[in-house]
Amino acid sequence: MVEQLVPELPEAILAIDPHGRIALANSGAEDLFGYTWDELAQRPLDDLLRDPTELGELAGELACRRKDGSEFHAELSVTSMDTADGQLVSVAFRDLGQRNRAVERLRWLSAIVEHAHTPIVSASLDGTVTSWNTAAERVYGWTAADMIGRPIGSVVEPVHADALARVTDGETVHLPEGQIVRSDGRRVAVSVTASPIVGPTGAVVGIAYAARDLTDRERAEAQFRWLLNATLLAIIGVDADGAIRMANTGAERAFGYPADELVGRPIEVVLPDARPAVLAESGTGGTGRHAAAEPDGTRATGRRRDGSEFPAEILLSSLLTDDGLLVAVTVNDITARLESEAERARLENELQRSQRLDSLGQLAGGVAHDFNNVLAIILSHASIAEEDLAGLEVGRQNGRLTGDDEGRLAGARRAVEQMQQAAERGSRLTKQLLAFGRREVVRPQVFRLDDVMADVIRLLSGTLGTDVRTSTTSDPELWPVTADPGRIEQVLVNLAMNARDAMPKGGTLQIDAVNLALDSAQAARYGLTDGRYVQLRVTDTGTGMPPEVAERAFEPFYTTKPEGQGTGLGLASVYGIVSQAAGTVYLRSRPGWGTSVTILLPASDGAPLARPEVPRAAAVEKRSDRTVLVVDDEPDLRKSIEIILGRGGYAVLTAGSGDEAAQLAGAYEGTIDLLLTDVTMPGLSGHEVAKRLRATRPGMRVLYMSGFAQPLLTSKGTIEADVTLVEKPFTRRSLLAKVAEVLAPA
Is the pLDDT of residue 424 over 50? Predict the structure, then answer.
């Protein structure tokens, strides 16, 4: 290493002509002899020698004389050279005294380095160890033979990489937190001074490292700095004037400033609203208490170098130091925590809403079942009365009725019509309740939503009004879905009518359908699994809803419409229909901006039908040679069904329970062509009755009737493939049509 510190000694060179005079001289000659070039030119060489000698005898060591008369010994070397002016002799002089002094200085420096108590090592610019003194051997356990030629980074951490850029620019660098790895594997904390090694040309050719073992206090401070920088939290030290005096690497990451740029700047640069709390803490006199009473700290705003801001919590603690009172400000970026809390609150709210709606759905399903039975009795008896009135109408035409009879007949006819209308209105309500509770019978098909969208727009073209503009868009290659197209049509109609009511002065109704692939994280936000979905969105530019209304929008019987103008079941049925199709629905609304209802339905891998099929009622066919066993636990309904079927030409057997039906069928010797049974009854269910009777009557057909068909539904909410159902409440015509359909030859 020391040899690298001593530059090569310059040579004095003179060119001598054949007459023994100086023809050329370099700057080294001017410096060595003390003459200028003008004084050397054409001067006899003998003037520079103590004992003049013939030119041909010049060789080896000679005594030389400077301009000031002082003498010195020099080593000479002579060579001849051809020039345009003829042959010249080149004489090179090396001052032996200066060389000896340099060698002596080299020995002196080597001794100092070698015997210094401080470990001193050197490395080339590529990090290879070039020297390793005795102190380094003693302190670190590695010999010079062990280390020379090895990478310095393997034992001295991490000083070379930290020092390289600055030292190669000629700077001496102090690194207070280095580490030396001893031969026994133990690490020793040291402070290191890195200095440049300069070569003959003035360029840096290596780095000299002098390492000093730390005192106990320095070691504690180094450990403290290491601990301070190891934490992920941002920590800054602020004095009583609000100026930053230190910052850890966490603060560099959090705020985007290098630590040395923060030192000396006011705290407002990074925490614009924290000065009052910091100054209040500094007034405690270094008690070390936390300014924040609550464990979560004080809320503040952090500001990054680029001007962006983030929410933060700060903890304050004051400390008396040799430089005065410092307040340690620990800054925790709580952006992720706030987002997580907001997401958790949203999910909890969504879960509570879902649980609330599920509970309401169970209640609604039970109410709808009982209500449907009542409506079925009303409708069936109204149908019977209608048929009786039709017979009286024949008598009126034959002139067998008086004037009073005519009036009573007309009144009875109007009463029956009102009964039927009221029952049918009630039936629509129960269907919406069942849809909300996901108890409604669905007949799923594979179809494309854009087909249903087109049908709905045509259906509503004269209903929405001329001041409501409608628009639909969909992906050209829209994925098909599996659902009941009639129910999806009902969803779109309900949403469109709600949108119309929300736009009394007109507006825009937009219906969009797009393909959407959700990953697991995206799907989890909606309570779904990852995969392909079709997104159906209905958006209006209406009055919108405040948050408290939007929160309850899907609850049954909740409505903000005037009394008599809404049942509160429209969006509730939308929720149930979409849920039964394994999808999800959510609503976004803002007063004055409108409402957007978004539905996600799982995409189907099946081939879509050209057009969704809607069931049509079969023609009524009377058969007098067929026997029907009617099973229902409602006596009035059972009686009305018996009358309807009897008048339809069927032989009718009735039973009030499943057990009674099984006994009756076991004792009946004739053929039972059709079992018409309620689904939900005390004791044996309709499904169990059918199974028991078919064991002995395999040719018997089965027709279920129910306003609550849950026991017949699959786990996906669809009706079993081998099940035929007539939904309560039904009319005389719809019942006879369904019976005829089931008994028709296969």
Answer: yes
